[in-house]
Amino acid sequence: MNILFAETLKKIRMDKGLSQQNLAELMYVTRSTVARWENGSRLPDAMMIFRLSKCLDVDLNTLLSAAAESDDAPNVIMVDDRKMFLSGALPILETIMPNAIITGFTKPSEALEYAKANRIALAFLDIELGKMNGLDLCGELITINPRANVVYLTAYSEYAFDAWSTGACGFLLKPITEESVRVQLKNLRYPFFLGSVVND
């Protein structure tokens, strides 16, 4: 089952304003075939992926790289130097992303060691972390994995301008809520399976 490809295809299709039936007609396949691609139970072959790139007007490498990776249990981290914040925020992430492996860190150095050993799909980073701030940590994580999604966490909205220049794809003001996290997850640069498949 390749959920990363499924979620990538679905996001691109929806961004193009196409239904599963619309895409099926463009691809000369049945709607159920598109549905199986998008729920991860089937992976199109190379010829069909090439045709998808043409029909959706998307870079072929975007689809090929998603097809090459399996992301059934994505790694999600949250880095904040306050244990109390982590204890309240981590359960929110677990509720929203039941399929993910979610780990919290109070030290950026420990988060980096974890990222070197585990492919990070999504990182929620506090900006003020002591010696290494979240902006620098973002750069390190993206160096380790260029496909890592980063969402900043802060109580100070004035950091927003600096945050957008670092390659991050989101920004959340504390305290976080399920609703605010869900909004950010819709805007991930590299989508992945969140634990449930939304129907067309």
Written account of the structure:
With 200 residues, the protein is of the alpha/beta class. The chain has 2 domains: 3-68, Orthogonal Bundle (434 Repressor (Amino-terminal Domain)); 75-185, Rossmann fold (3-Layer(aba) Sandwich). 48% of the residues lie in helices and 14% in strands. The chain has helices spanning 3-15, 20-27, 31-39, 46-55, 60-68, 83-96, 108-117, 134-144, 160-164, 178-185, and strands spanning 75-79, 101-105, 120-126, 149-154, 170-173. It has a 5-stranded parallel sheet with strand order 2-1-3-4-5, sandwiched between helices. α9 (160-164) links the parallel β4 (149-154) and β5 (170-173).
Summed up:
With 200 residues, the chain is α/β, with parallel strands linked by helices. Helices cover 48% and strands 14% of the residues. It is built from ten helices and five strands; from the N terminus they run H-H-H-H-H-E-H-E-H-E-H-E-H-E-H.
Give the overall shape.
elongated
**What is the total domain count?**
2
Question: Order of strands in the sheet with the most strands?
Answer: 2-1-3-4-5
> How far apart lie the N and C ends?
19 Å
CATH superfamily name of the largest domain? Response regulator
The CATH C-level class name of the largest domain:
Alpha Beta
Strand content: 5-15%
CATH topology of the largest domain: Rossmann fold
Helix content: 40-55%
Number of helices: 10
Low-confidence stretches: 196-200
SSE series: HHHHHEHEHEHEHEH
CATH architecture classification of the largest domain: 3-Layer(aba) Sandwich
| Average pLDDT, all residues | 86
Largest sheet, strands/sense/barrel? 5 strands, parallel
